[in-house]
Write a structure and sequence with these properties.
heterodimer; A: 627 residues; 24 helices; 2 strands; B: 461 residues; two-stranded antiparallel sheet; 20 helices; 2% strand
Chain lengths: 627, 461
Amino acid sequence: MGYLIILIPLLAGLICLIFRKKLYFISLFFSFCCFVLNLLLLVNRKEYMIDWLKFLKIDIVLISDFTSLISSVLASFFGLIVVIFSKKILDTVKENIYFSFIFFILAFTHLSLLSKNLILFLISWEILGILVYLLIRFVTANDEFNTATKAITIISISDFSLLIGIILLIKEASNMYGLYFTSYNLDVNKYPLIFSLLTIGALGKIGAIPFHTWIPETAEKIPSALGGFLIGALDKILGIYLLVRITKDIFILSYHPFLMILGGLTVLIAVFMALIQHNLKKLLSYHAISQIGYMVVGISTGSVLGIVGGVFHMINNTIYKTLLFLSSDFVEKYTEDVELTKAKGLAKYYPLCFVFTLIAALSISGIPPFNGFFSKWLIYQSVIEVSKKYFFVGVLVLISIMFGSALTFASFVKVLYSVFLSKNEDEHTNRVLKEKEKIFNVLPMGILAILCIILGIFSFEIPISRIVKPMLGFEKILLIGEWNAQAATYLLILGVFIGLIIYILFVDKPRKVNVYLLGEEEKLGESYFPSTDFYLTIKQMFPFSVLYYLAENKLFDIYNWFLWSLSFLVNGISKVLKLDIVDLYIFSKKNIFKVAEKLSFLHNGNLHSYLSWIFISILILFFIFLL
Amino acid sequence: MNNILILSSLILLFISVFLIGSLKNKKLYKFLSLFFISLSLICLVVLSLRFFLNIEKNFLLNFKGINIFIIDFYSLLIILTSVFISLLITLYSFEYISEDENQRYYYFYNTLFIASMIGLVFSCNLILMYIFWELTSLCSWKLIKFYKKDDHITKANKAFLVTSLGSVLMLCGIVINYIEFGSFDFTYLKDRKISDLAGVFLIIGMIAKSAQLPFQSWLPDAGVAPTPVTALLHAAVLVKIGTYAFGRIFNFTFQISNNLQSLIIYLSFFTIFISSFMALAEFDIKRILAYSTISQLGYIFLGFAVNVKESIIGAIFYIISHAFAKAGLFLSAGIIEHELKEKNILKLGGLSKNMPIVSACFFLCGLSIIGFPVFSGFWSKFFILKGMLQANKITLAFLLIIGALLSLVYFMRVYNSVFLGTKKYDIKQHYSWMVFVVALLTFFSVILGVYPDIILKLIKI
């Protein structure tokens, strides 16, 4: 049965690639099968052997521990959600490519997550890189290949780092533990290089800074639902899975200050970039990057609480981020664009979509009692613990992630205002708004929104106790701060209820009167504040103005640094190699001709000269033999 | 039986050369060439089956007490790959040079080259190897100047002179060896320690043939030859002679000193990096692929030079897998050149729409060269890397990965410029023999990646 979890999505992908009709229902069937099969594997935990790569003299095993199985269930769950949502996809994308790549990516995600063997894990991990490249290539226009190239280059940099990290790990520890993901319990201080290389591999996959730059560009070009599946869900599941394996299994749990600072920076930088975005997809992708920071910070604390918080935040993030991307896809489908420059005012047309997006926005901003709050709360606690020992780093990171949370909320205020709440003044949007919300769109969004609420209210009872704890294998989690989600929820509902009563009973309703114009022309219109001007002040404020300018000109883009340094080296080396002195052939040819030219005076055609040379030669030979 | 099979594989090709040279029927040349190469391949396949199915063990063919040919897994694997790819490339040539007047010339030297290759690979002594070595140089020289243009002749001369310089020095090495040990025979010389001087001379010959630094410049220039020639000689087969000889002489015969080992390791690294950068500086698709070949041959030398079991397996496997993938790449480039008469990547673009199969093949072969899992190049580089780590060369292993990353960059540059972007030509891909051959090479390249055990279990070190 173990093989089926890889074979079924592969088969589904091939079928989708070949068939042209009823693809939605075929995909629905197969994605449901994958999800059910994953659940069965979770219930019936067992290891499966494959002897396909026996030439390496190692056993290839599909793992059976909870970390892998739960991650795999999550991946197939999001596959199912995205497939349900995708009954109608954008005209620019071919349906067979769309669905087949969902399945191919799902197959290799399962393989990566379930591989006990490091080599198999590496292979499937790298294949995912190629699939991402191909997917971007197929769903974007032929002229936009730079996005795909950038993605594969950055992914490859981190993948190659992972490759060498794993090879070094095999060299150092395979005698003791074989080639498996297992408790190596290495000391980071003893093997800093292996730790750094493996971590780069994980950070590259989740798109932490500085490996993030391909994500916004990709998100902008591909359909949002795919973006949600890929950037919102799978990359996070895979990256955090690997990071947990590295920090918990391969190495002894310990505090990693550098990683923590990187996490803090990721939160802050990405959220600042999100603030000034005018494209919904790009904005969401920056938030996706920003949320990675929280997970990285949590895991880097090296405490049980931090890792639990980090993994729980990963689960939460995949839920609300996928929901937000689906919402973006919804907006794109129904209004034909995702530019925030145009006020759309969709709340009155699509109330359910608005409510779901609102829930996701509140969750991502860490507003209680939604799920995002509790995971952030755990992470904050773990950082506070760290700051008791390492005050400076702890406090700085704590401030940056809390500030990041506030800025996230600010950013989503802009989104909600622009897309749902402002008055619709865009003619184009008005013209295309014809369709009503469809069940296949609303249902998956609704499921995710309900999950945001349930995982928030029953955070300790369901996700922490039933999912995260078994996933990480921790016996006991000691909470430092008190938080009773149910009580808080009741109080919040009560608060809202009392507020409403006060509003209805005591607040005077505004009185509307016609403006007396005294025969003049009406000049007063309804005032409208464009959402794009929301955070203009921050953008124009020093030193943000300079930083934003540099960032928008891609001066902080690792890919550009890579290209610049490469171009410098290429120019230098090619100039040197084109010098005659370096080309052995040209150098020899020139010098031989020079010598020949110099010697040509000997060949003057004069018999007396030739006879003289012969005579001198004979004399030389005579002396040589005589002596 | 074995003697008959070996000699038939060689003699059949010489018969073909003779017939091509003497007959005057224009249409017959290509069929004669193909027919005799196929017969020769069948002989080699039968020989290999007997060997690999354990009917026969390593054996030597001797004439009047002198060992002439050696048959072991190494020679068989290399020659099977070489002749099979040569057969496919000959098939490709049917269409590629169908318009040319000079077909007799082409098929004559093409077949002669394959015959000399068989002789060289099976050679059991240094002198015989040297004779076939020079014969391959001669064929290469003749084939590069196939179009007989002035600059082509200059470039062919350059290739001939540079490789000949190497050969002459190699001969010096052979002579020094003879003075030291009194024999040219590999079986006699086995496990003896070669002197550094003789080793350096031999290595110069090999790196000149395989276009390693500082002898690299002839290979990109040799790209003026017709593409099948470039694919056969300068990507898949001829340039592998240097690496094959290195393996035969320094891994399976002599004991190499640490100094020589270090020399070739550093030289290979230097070659991998410099030629990767050069590939990035070029705009001619064939020159880029030529630099890529130089760079990838560096990996093979590296694998042999590290001299650990794993790295040698990686190197041998890479000789085979690189031959398939690089031939696929060159022949894809050949189709583009044939259809559009253009080699400058800046003037090409958007061809994936016009030529979807060629585009896919180019992409897959490229992934193999880069070393992406599960493509064949990955396993080769993986084994080489593993060997390097076993030999405790961690820094160099790290650099090796960066080298692979560079190959990704230059490959993506070519692929993006040629197949993606704005469509600059409005042509339609016709499904010809050329496309079929490219697809077949790609298929084998992918198969070697998905199931490398086919070859790996035959490597018996």
